[in-house]
From TrEMBL:
<feature type="transmembrane region" description="Helical">
    <location>
        <begin position="43"/>
        <end position="66"/>
    </location>
</feature>
<feature type="transmembrane region" description="Helical">
    <location>
        <begin position="147"/>
        <end position="171"/>
    </location>
</feature>
<feature type="transmembrane region" description="Helical">
    <location>
        <begin position="16"/>
        <end position="37"/>
    </location>
</feature>
<keyword id="KW-0472">Membrane</keyword>
<feature type="transmembrane region" description="Helical">
    <location>
        <begin position="114"/>
        <end position="135"/>
    </location>
</feature>
<feature type="transmembrane region" description="Helical">
    <location>
        <begin position="87"/>
        <end position="108"/>
    </location>
</feature>
<keyword id="KW-0812">Transmembrane</keyword>
<dbReference type="Pfam" id="PF01988">
    <property type="entry name" value="VIT1"/>
</dbReference>
<protein>
    <submittedName>
        <fullName>VIT1/CCC1 transporter family protein</fullName>
    </submittedName>
</protein>
<dbReference type="InterPro" id="IPR008217">
    <property type="entry name" value="Ccc1_fam"/>
</dbReference>
<keyword id="KW-1133">Transmembrane helix</keyword>
């Protein structure tokens, strides 16, 4: 069984990493942008959930279309793999992308929600990055830190943009 799972992950690593990485980062970017703009946690949660399904579908469909186009242009490529690639990307996006929202779904003090979301997201980014080492030649530490750094950079950008736009737009929605 372990070799079957390992084979599946090796075959789908690109699709799974693409979906998980983008799911975590874009959902957390919505949370950080909303926090930077001082929007309510409910707004962050609604936007985050909408992102999970709309962007997850977009990512999965885009991966499917890309793989299908590749198969259509190359007689040696297998077009049946395109659907599996799209579904793997969508599933990884939704599952991993939900992690930053957990802090907004469980009972806790409002002031603790964003720090908890940061911790959950950092752990997920590092964990998913480290799991790449199962099928790559990179160390788990390097792989985890690489994905964490990319996600952290995106979060900083989203927070600053949210903060700046809230100031420009005169938003005060907390």
């Amino acid at each position: 069984m372990r070799s079957g799972v390992r084979t599946y992950f090796r075959r789908r690593i690109k699709d799974l990493v693409l979906g998980a990485n983008d799911g975590i980062i874009t959902t957390f970017a919505i949370v950080t942008g909303a926090t930077g703009a001082s929007l309510s946690p409910r707004v962050a949660l609604v936007l985050g959930i909408a992102n999970l399904f709309a962007d997850g579908l977009s990512m999965g469909a885009s991966n499917y279309l890309g793989r299908k186009s590749e198969a259509d242009s190359d007689a040696t490529a297998d077009p049946r793999g395109a659907l599996g690639a799209g579904l793997a990307t969508f599933a990884a996006f939704v599952v991993a992308g939900a992690i930053p929202l957990v802090a907004f779904l469980v009972p806790m003090a409002p002031a603790s929600r964003f720090p908890a979301a940061c911790a959950l997201t950092a752990g997920a980014l590092f964990g998913f990055g480290a799991m790449r080492a199962v099928v790559t030649r990179r160390s788990w530490l390097y792989s985890g830190l690489e994905m964490l750094a990319i996600g952290a950079a995106a979060a900083v950008v989203a927070y600053v943009v949210g903060w700046a736009l809230a100031g420009v737009a005169g938003l005060d929605m907390v």
